[in-house]
Write a structure and sequence with these properties.
about 25% helix, four-stranded antiparallel β-sheet, about 20% strand, alpha/beta, Alkaline Phosphatase, subunit A
């Protein structure tokens, strides 16, 4: 791994407390906004546990304002970042996760990408008034869309050999500046933790090299990047760092892996802040937070055991739902796994072999909600599960929405879609090692070099407030169909 100066750099050891920086900002000629997105950054780590070891973020907080940022439902990368930049909810976007039903058949699922977002984003509004936006890694941004400025694709991009950059000639420049630029840390659900750690550092460093290069060489108005490395770190290393994790081993050699990355990441942010002028306001934010994962609920096992899902043949070993021999003529309900569960009803006249009469649809949904809420954990204790009807939580419900969205155990548990274990509770992830789930609260820091805002904590901030806040920074009107509000920093 190389540092900004080109010298070999080792993954840092446990860091002592560091001194506060002293930034000197040059006089700016025009208004600019810089957004540093950190996917999955956990507010309790930045605001409390590590704050005094993060001198650059601490500087922004001390001289600006900060607070938790409530994510959307579900709090996952896609659709959360798109919600932040359009100020629309997942229902309006018609994006309920990475994978969405393409139609009411049983098999057809689509992977969300940039084409799935049909609502205008901040950079579209800015482009209409001639302002240039430079956008790096904001999910979902593959394939990249034409923009007044440039768009570098997110982790959904196949690799750097693909057409992941708009305009396309910029791709060669990016790879000259950072030859090892990566769109993601491949295979982050791995047991080879040292390899993964090195890949995350390498990826993040290359991203900041490109960020800083474009900030210095382009005449930008709005600059936004999202670093996916924080998310990959949490999913790969949370059990090593969190004493409350069910699989934590005290004194393990990776105990400080998350801490040390945050400290190192703060330095990358500091080098980036050195490039702004006094007319550039700064937002550092995450789309959701992180928390330990206590286990998984095998949603389809529960549905089988409770008579909702009928199989023609019992699975031989653990298999994904798509490979199960389901009797659709006798099945009323099935589910998909993930950091939350999507539950689908087999409705007459809607699904090909639907058996739930439309006039019983609400009754079955209510019955499931009651049963999910009552389901205890593996020790018989209450779980604090919440199941939602999309129509109750979204302004609009577009696309093919789940019939229920289920958040298991206050997000300490995930949904597992596979079948064959015969158990409702599991402590192994069916898609590979994963230590963390997403938390509902992300983080927000705002800093304006021209104003000392006193380091106040702001409350009741929402992810959908970001787009109107950015437009307000540029003095633009807020579109009436945005559901967020302008965050008041004064």
């Amino acid at each position: 791994m190389q540092n900004a100066g080109g010298n070999p750099q080792q993954i840092p050891a446990h860091h002592p407390m560091t001194q506060s920086p002293n930034f000197i900002f040059s006089k700016g000629k025009k208004k600019r906004v810089l957004v540093i997105g950190l996917d999955c950054a956990e507010p309790s780590l930045v605001f409390q546990h590590y704050r005094h070891e993060l001198p650059n973020l601490n500087y922004l907080m001390t001289n600006g304002v900060w607070g938790e940022l409530e994510s959307v439902l579900p709090p996952i990368t896609v659709p959360a970042w798109a919600c932040s930049q359009t100020s629309k909810d997942p229902g309006t976007l018609g994006i309920y996760g990475f994978r969405n039903r393409a139609d009411y058949s049983y098999e057809k699922m689509t992977i969300a990408n940039s084409r799935s977002v049909n609502e205008p984003a901040t950079w579209d509004y800015l482009g209409r008034v001639g302002k240039q936006s430079y956008l790096i890694g904001i999910p979902p941004s593959y394939p990249p869309k034409p923009v007044n400025g440039a768009m570098v694709g997110c982790f959904l991009s196949p690799n750097t050999n693909s057409k992941f950059v708009y305009p396309e000639p910029l791709r060669e420049e990016i790879l000259r500046v950072a030859p090892n630029y990566a769109v993601d840390a491949e295979n982050f659900r791995t047991e080879n933790k040292q390899w993964l750690l090195e890949k995350i550092y390498e990826m993040t460093q290359a991203r900041f090299q490109v960020i800083q290069h474009l900030m210095k060489t382009r005449d930008w108005d709005y600059f936004m990047s999202v670093e996916i490395g924080v998310d990959r770190l949490h999913h790969g290393f949370w059990k090593y760092h969190d004493p409350q994790h069910i699989k934590h081993e005290p004194g393990n050699p990776l105990l400080h892996s998350i801490h040390d990355y945050y400290v190192w990441l703060d330095k990358q942010i500091g080098a980036t802040l050195e490039l702004i002028d006094d007319n550039t306001s700064v937002i550092v934010m995450s789309d959701h937070g992180a928390k330990r994962m206590d286990g998984g609920i095998c949603i389809n096992e529960w549905l089988v055991q409770n008579g909702y899902l009928a199989l023609d043949e019992k699975p031989n070993g653990i298999i994904p739902l798509s490979k199960a021999k389901i009797n659709w003529n006798k099945t009323r309900v099935w589910g998909e796994g993930g950091y939350y569960s999507r539950v689908f009803l087999n409705v007459q006249g809607r699904e090909p072999n639907g058996i739930i009469p439309p006039d019983q649809y609400e009754q079955v949904r209510d019955e499931l909600i009651e049963k999910f809420h009552a389901l205890p954990d593996h020790e018989g204790k209450p779980m604090k599960t919440h199941a939602f009807k999309p129509q109750d939580v979204y302004k609009k419900v577009n696309g093919v929405a789940p019939d229920l969205i289920v958040i298991w155990g206050d997000l300490y548990w995930r949904g597992v879609g596979s079948l064959g274990s015969g158990e409702i509770y599991t402590f192994e992830n069916d898609t590979g090692p994963d230590d963390a789930n997403h938390a509902q609260q992300g983080m927000y820091i705002y800093f304006d070099p021209k104003r000392n805002l006193g380091g106040r904590e702001l409350r009741e901030l929402k992810l959908v407030d970001i787009a109107p806040t950015v437009l307000h920074e540029f003095g633009l009107p807020i579109p009436s169909d945005m559901i967020g509000k302008v965050i008041r920093h004064e």
